[in-house]
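Sequence of 3-phosphoshikimate 1-carboxyvinyltransferase (Halosimplex carlsbadense 2-9-1).
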Amino acid sequence: MDATIERSTVEGRARAPPSKSYTHRAILAAGYGAEAAVRDPLVSADTQATRRAVEAYGGETNLADDRSTLEVSGFDGLPDVPADVIDCANSGTTMRLTTATAALADGLTVLTGDGSLRSRPQGPLLDAIEQLDGRAESTRANGQAPLVIGGPVSGGTASIPGDVSSQFVTALLMAGAVSEEGITVDLETELKSAPYVDITIEVLEAFGVEATETEGGYHVEGGQTYAPEGGEYHVPGDFSSMSYLLAAGALAAPDGLVVEGAYPSAQGDAAIVDVLERMGADIDWDREAGEITVSQSDLTGVEVSVADTPDLLPTIAVLGAAADGTTSIVDCEHVRYKETDRVSVMADSLTEMGAAVVEERDRLSIRGAETDLRGATLPGRDDHRIIMSLAVAGLVADGETTITEAEDVDVSFPGFFDTLAELGATVSK
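Predicted 3D structure, token representation.
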């Protein structure tokens, strides 16, 4: 599917979908337990991959017809050896989190995914599993999927780098809670994307599991039970997805745009509100009501570190292209190891749209004062965040902006283009 966006304005009210990060963790947490209901889950390509993985490990899931509740009968801390290869599709979160699950099973598990996922680094997690006396191999011996994992591990201590992916820490903590001995994670380098581990600890706590931060990393006791209070867990709204709506409001909503479902949580990507405030946006967050109101504003470039918020880079890059002055996105090398090299892809895409961009290994600078955005035909690169950010850029670019492979927004924000159209944007697909 191709999606075409014309220069246009937006207004009204919109609700971002439930959090993808929380949904992944909640589905797997329910799988580690006996019985739980996950309320308001994000039903997307990525989270469906985690649901399939839970089923492969012996759990059962049932999604209500209105998609408001996912009932999970879990494998109660003892995953089966899957009867078939686990296909994680394009979901890096699924692969990393459930690779550690495989290390608990008494046998061999094979995990793979699509071409993009098979290019993403998994080596540190494989090394950690081997330190815990499990078997962990890359079939091509390059630290990438397909992966072969063997267990069962009983727990112990593993040292891993913190600057590749926080998902390795999450995977070990979630699995460690149901291991015999528990798992201690020692970080060899500073942890990037630390708020995502905060999300994990928040979800674990909601499921009755305790994990703690230590002086050098994290620790979780073994022998714990996953059981949320009242047998259910409610997924909060997704700030990563909200970022596109908030950016659209700041760039193209002269009469204001209200984003609903914005309740405070451990999500690092709530930092988009602070970024917009620093850039001079007219924005107000009513935390009690869970509503953010933002209006079209004259923005000024700022420097932003995305060390803890890698998913915000595409959104901030687009804001920078429409702002006065220079916006510098720093601490971004780890953003190169997502579904695509998002640093390079955003540099190329915005340059194609007429932006003045300087790409360095760990910095992306967008010179908004030298930029007049124009429409272009751009590949979606099989990356939902690239597609949505470029669609927002299309709202303020002269002419038409066409994004190919735009159906990949279903990974995290099904109905994204419909939402833009309902807000008044001129969209065709």
